[in-house]
Amino acid sequence: MKNQHLEAVRQWYPNAMTSIDTIDRLLDVIEKHLGLKPEQLMHADSMCCDDVNAIQYPPRAYEMIGPFKMGGLNGYPFAGLTGMNAFAHHVPENGAVVVFYAPHIGITKEGVIGEINRIGQQANSACCGAAKGALNKLLSNQIIEGNISSLDFQMNTIEQIFLHNQARILSASNHLFEATEVMYEAIDNRIEVLVGQTQYPCKYVILVGAVFINGDRDMGSFCQYKKFDYIDLDTSERRSLMKEYFLEA
User: Fold this and answer.
1) How far apart are CA 140 and CA 17, in angstroms?
2) Which pLDDT score is estimated for 249?
3) Do the Cβ atoms of 95 and 84 come closer than 8 Å?
4) Which range marks the domain in which residue 201 is found?
5) What element of type H or E holds 98?
6) Up-side HSE of residue 194: CA atoms within 13 Å toward CB?
């Protein structure tokens, strides 16, 4: 049954689907084209540590082994090379690793981006709060080049990413939407570096990049995929499964 709130989400993300539908398609495509069942998949995610992501996490994802948590604020893979290497050693030898990574953003049922109505609260709150906080500092010229403190390392890292993309973000029609796109690209680039420096004792590495979209407490969550690649570790062949993902019914 079509989610009644999908139209509001698709004002911003035209290819978004419910997170339930996305995980169904993901697992179906992997089984059909790679011959692997969920119990053969070791799952890591790089998502924001915001509690709403745990609340709205799609249940079928737990059919895979894991998840190993790579992400910190706004989904950046702060677990780094040590985390990726640790995760790699947990994978079934006849299976695959699935690395799902995504910044997140809220969209209300009225289509307002950057906020949601959370459980037990009357007023809406920011989502992603870290991204909005870093954006507000960018807009008010409060970010200092190279300023990263051990007291707020993750937030400072996001601030630096935004600062290095200041012209792009500030010239966009919606600053937060564009900042989320910038964040996705930063996460994607870092994941590619980490994967390239990690040895996996299995058959495939599957990389799934997306924007994870939180709805109000009665909406559920949504997702728009941006990448769905697999790497055959025997041949080093890399192929996209995005076409198969969108064709899957």
Assistant:
1) 35
2) 56
3) no
4) 4-127+181-248
5) strand 96-101
6) 27
Can you list the alpha helix ranges (DSSP code H) found in 90-219?
129-139, 153-163, 166-170, 175-196
Block mean pLDDT (10 aa), the chain, length 249? 81 95 96 96 94 89 94 96 92 93 95 91 88 96 95 97 98 97 98 96 97 92 97 96 87
Q: Is residue 150 part of a domain?
A: no
Phi and psi torsions of 132, nearest 5°: -65, -40
Of 220, 195, 199, the C-alpha closest to 208 is 195
CA distances from 13 to 18, 180, 203 (A): 12, 12, 33
Does pTM surpass 0.85?
Answer: yes
Domain count, the chain: 1
- The set of residues, in sequence order, having a beta carbon less than 8 Å from that of 182 and lying 6+ positions away, is 161, 162, 165, 168, 169
